[in-house]
Specification:
Elements: E1 3-7, H1 18-26, E2 30-32, H2 52-65, E3 71-76, H3 79-90, E4 94-100, H4 111-115, E5 130-131, H5 141-147, E6 154-155, H6 157-160, E7 175-181, H7 192-202, E8 208-212, H8 218-221, H9 223-233
Parallel strand pairs: 1-2, 1-3, 3-4, 4-7, 7-8
Antiparallel strand pairs: 5-6
Helix pairs in contact: 1-9, 2-3
Length: 234
């Protein structure tokens, strides 16, 4: 039996993994999907003070309080920043690290810098402290009907706070996998950070690389295919 810790992305929540959770648990595995403070089911806790460190702590505390070890740790999209920041604290408990169409930052990187453009005007007094996400494409209209009302604003501090990663992922003894969604979301510019991270993994013997032919919301559009890849890791 494997233990999976799946970390959702911006504007989302743990509910986005509900189909993947079910598939993994049906195969007898343990699955944790921590909800990040201020979004998803914890949207009532949003504030200007919620940042990347808050979200890293959400994941670290889940692992430590549940005393999880030998985990498959997955970060989806913005969740790549979160799992990267968590490595300093729980890297010794990770057996496999998976980035799902996600940021793979270096120490000191921010989402804003990796995207290559300001999020909502220049930093400073009067800047909004939360930001809405782009429209996303869903393969199943029923999934869209479920998910769209549950998308919530993201605290900007989570995008402007630098990640702390004393060592790159390649310096840890666990395996590393990058999964790239290959179909662009209509009307959404291609994220250069995801393209760069995918190329890094594809060209390196230190990484495993996979592609899934769907748009960005892989856990909701291709849950069975994603679960199959994760089961192979387990």
């Amino acid at each position: 039996m494997a233990t999976f810790v799946l970390v959702h992305g911006a504007w989302g929540g743990a509910h986005g993994f509900r189909h993947v959770r079910s598939a993994l648990r049906t195969e007898g595995h343990e699955v944790f999907t921590p909800s990040l403070t201020g979004i998803g089911e914890r949207v009532h806790l949003i504030s200007p003070q919620v940042g990347l460190t808050t979200h890293v702590t959400d994941v670290v505390n889940t692992v430590l309080y549940e005393d999880l070890d030998g985990i498959v740790l997955l970060g989806f999209s913005y969740g790549g920043m979160v799992v990267s920041g968590a490595l300093e604290h729980i890297g010794g408990r990770v057996a496999a690290l998976v980035y799902l169409d996600a940021f793979v930052p270096a120490d000191g990187d921010t989402v804003e810098r990796l995207r290559g453009q300001p999020l909502d005007g220049p930093p400073g007094v009067g800047r909004p402290w939360s930001v809405d996400g782009p429209a996303r494409a869903y393969d199943d209209p029923a999934e869209a009907a479920f998910s769209v009302p549950r998308r919530s604003a993201q605290p900007i501090r989570s995008f402007t706070e630098p990640v702390r990663l004393p060592r790159p992922p390649e310096d840890f003894p666990f395996s590393r996998t990058y999964i790239r969604a290959t179909v662009p979301d209509p009307g959404v510019p291609v994220n250069p950070a995801f393209e760069s991270a995918a190329a890094r993994a594809r060209d390196s013997p230190a990484w495993h690389y996979h592609e899934i032919a769907t748009t960005h919301l892989v856990p909701q559009n291709r849950p069975a295919e994603l679960a199959g890849l994760l089961l192979d890791l387990a």
